[in-house]
Amino acid sequence: MNNYYCILGICLKSGEWLNVLVAIIALFVSLLSLIVAVSYARKTFRPIVSVMVKTHSGGSVSISYNLQILNSGSIPAKEIRLKADHEDIEKAIANQQFDDRKDEWLACFTDDSTIMLLQNGEKVSCSFGLTRPNDSGFWHYGASIPVTIEYKGWFGKEYRDQQIIQIKDSDSFTGYFWSA
Question: How far, in Å, are 19, 32, 33, 34, 104 from residue 29 at the CA level?
Answer without folding.
Answer: 15, 5, 6, 9, 57
